[in-house]
Amino acid sequence: MKIIVLGTAAAISTKERDNTSLCVLPNNDIPILIDCSGSIVHRLEKAKIEWHKIEEILITHGHIDHIYGIPSLIHHLWLRSMGKRNKPLRFYGPTSALERIKKSLSVYGLTEKPKMFPWEFHKISTLENDLVFSKKWGEVRSTPVLHGQEDTIAISFFENKSSKRFVYSSDTEPCVSLEEFASMAELLIHECAYLDEIERKGHSNIYQAVNIANKAKVKELVLIHFDWESLGRIDTAMNQVQPNFYGKVSIANDFDVFEVV
Ligand SMILES: [Zn+2]
Ligand SMILES: [Zn+2]
Question: What is the Cα 135 distance to its own chain's centre?
């Protein structure tokens, strides 16, 4: 599978970094979005992804920087299909996030558009390592993580052919559920809101993210979701953590592509 990074900023985007969202291309199958922010179709076009084919969006939580692209994506899909799309768009996420999305679609009048295609909301449970859906190529699972008051999940993709896993932490402070969920993954994309050593509620700093990756024994760690004020410290922080991680560690930039094969 291929993972295409559509944005890498935390809540405040910058000239180089849009808010964090990802697109996963499983083996010869339809692209799946993880969160949906920024000028999403513009980003997908730039990444050469056939966005009009998207049928599934995994929502990690209901914070604005992870969901505000959804009304625009639906509007694009509706305009482009000219009323001919019958396939539903399926959202998977925690209840609170799905409720917020439902409200936003109504506020933007998308629920009243003529010949609008259907959409479905599928609640993701708060159980650890729970199956979200399975496909011919493999399966998607979720586990709850720790992000303040907001119900938030981490996501994993398992591919049958390679028997390899990719895990995305979403926004979280270090937690055992994620450590276990990411155990032995080929690739962990972990949030790294801060590049200093201060421990904060709801988010991870670079040292905490590397520590989780070490404990989970993942092969490759990619850091994402940077606070704009921390960005000046990237090089110094990377030099400090690199010797502490036995695997490969890197910083995600917008439009980076990672392959798990
Ligand atoms: Zn966020
Ligand atoms: Zn958040």
Answer: 19
Domains identified in the chain, total number: 1
What is the pTM (predicted TM-score) of this model? 0.97
Structure tokens at 119: 């959409």
Give the environment of ion ligand 1: residues with CB less than 5 A. 65, 171
* Rounded distance from Cα 188 to ligand 2 centre (Å): 18
CATH of the domain at 81: 3.60.15.10
Residues 69, 93 contacting (CB under 8 angstroms)? no
* Contact predicate 179/146, CB 8 Å: no
**Strand 164-168 to strand 187-191: parallel, antiparallel, or no bridges (unpaired)?**
parallel
**Spatial separation of the C-alpha atoms in residues 55 and 76, rounded to whole Å:** 14
Range of the domain at 189: 2-259
pLDDT tens series, the chain, 261 aa:
999 999 999 999 999 999 999 999 998 789 999 999 999 999 999 999 999 999 999 999 999 999 999 999 999 999 999 889 999 999 999 999 999 999 999 999 999 999 999 999 999 999 999 999 999 999 999 999 999 999 999 999 999 999 999 999 999 999 999 999 999 999 999 999 999 999 999 999 999 999 999 999 999 999 999 999 999 999 999 999 999 998 999 999 999 999 999
Distance 248 CA to ligand 1 centre (A): 24
